[in-house]
């Protein structure tokens, strides 16, 4: 069973790896900052949806999809590719893939901010129709990252009274969140619009994030067959 310490080690190691290249981030952000300074902007217009299941069927929009534009980094993308390449090797690798990817992204964002490029972290969320738009994107090379989260509650395994006392500090699984990720490289040009479509046929990776925590002894147990009330 994976421990909380094991997961913490994942975040620390991935963060260290990303920060090791922070000195090179300034070179990636410089041309984008220069384009921003001279107001050389393009735009990115997109929509997230599930395609119709049958010919001619209407698509189903994905609202609430998080969309992020980041300066393109070959090293960051190689790190993501490495995580993806091994995420089917074992159950642990599968469960650790999404946390590792999130940790790598956060570390890269921090490196961009530390390099003075915080203005280049562009984030949006898709609306009720699945649409999103970035109106002022400095021309240059970007990576679009997007993710859609679908939480699933789960009643933790019931323990006998003596087991509950013995393992009262052991984390239990209260559910999980399925996370669908998209990754698309973009080349933005001043005065031009880039059209992006995120759908079920161009997903980059699907991962899982467990809701693993120590049960609160002061909270009432859920009725049999139901998930515990949210924390």
Could you characterize the architecture of this molecule?
The chain has 231 residues and is α+β, with helices and mostly antiparallel strands. The strands form 2 sheets. A 5-stranded antiparallel beta sheet has the order 4-3-6-7-9, covered by helices on one side. Strands 1, 2, 5 and 8 form a 4-stranded mixed beta sheet that branches. The two termini are 23 Å apart. Mean pLDDT is 82; it is low at 1-20 and 220-231. The chain has a single domain (4-213), classed as Immunoglobulin-like (Sandwich), CATH 2.60.40.1120. Helices cover 32% and strands 33% of the residues. The protein has helices at 4-19, 22-37, 74-85, 91-114, 161-166, and strands at residues 41-50, 60-61, 66-71, 122-125, 131-138, 140-153, 172-188, 193-198, 205-213.
Q: Roughly what is the average pLDDT, rounded to an integer?
A: 82
Oligomeric organization of the protein chains? single chain
- At CATH level 3, the topology is Immunoglobulin-like
End-to-end separation in angstroms reads: 23 Å
| CATH architectural arrangement | Sandwich
Proportion of residues in extended strands? 25-35%
């Amino acid at each position: 069973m994976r421990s909380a310490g094991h997961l913490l080690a994942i975040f620390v190691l991935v963060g260290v790896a990303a920060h090791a290249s922070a000195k090179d981030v300034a070179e990636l952000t410089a041309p984008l900052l220069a384009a921003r300074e001279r107001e050389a902007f393009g735009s990115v217009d997109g929509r997230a949806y599930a395609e119709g299941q049958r010919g001619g069927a209407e698509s189903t929009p994905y609202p609430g999809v998080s969309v992020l534009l980041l300066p393109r980094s070959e090293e960051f993308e190689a790190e993501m590719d490495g995580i993806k390449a091994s995420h089917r090797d074992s159950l642990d690798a599968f469960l650790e893939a999404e946390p590792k990817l999130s940790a790598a992204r956060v570390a890269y964002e921090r490196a961009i901010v530390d390099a003075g490029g915080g203005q280049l972290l562009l984030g949006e969320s898709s609306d009720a129709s699945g649409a999103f738009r970035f109106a002022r994107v400095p021309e240059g090379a970007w990576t679009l990252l997007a993710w859609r989260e679908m939480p699933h509650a789960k009643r933790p395994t019931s323990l006998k009274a003596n087991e509950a006392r013995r393992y009262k500090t052991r984390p239990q699984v209260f559910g999980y969140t399925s996370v669908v990720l998209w990754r698309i490289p973009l080349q933005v040009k001043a005065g031009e619009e880039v059209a992006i479509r995120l759908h079920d046929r161009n997903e980059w990776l699907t991962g899982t994030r467990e809701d693993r925590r120590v049960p609160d002894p002061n909270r009432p147990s859920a009725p049999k067959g139901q998930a515990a009330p949210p924390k």
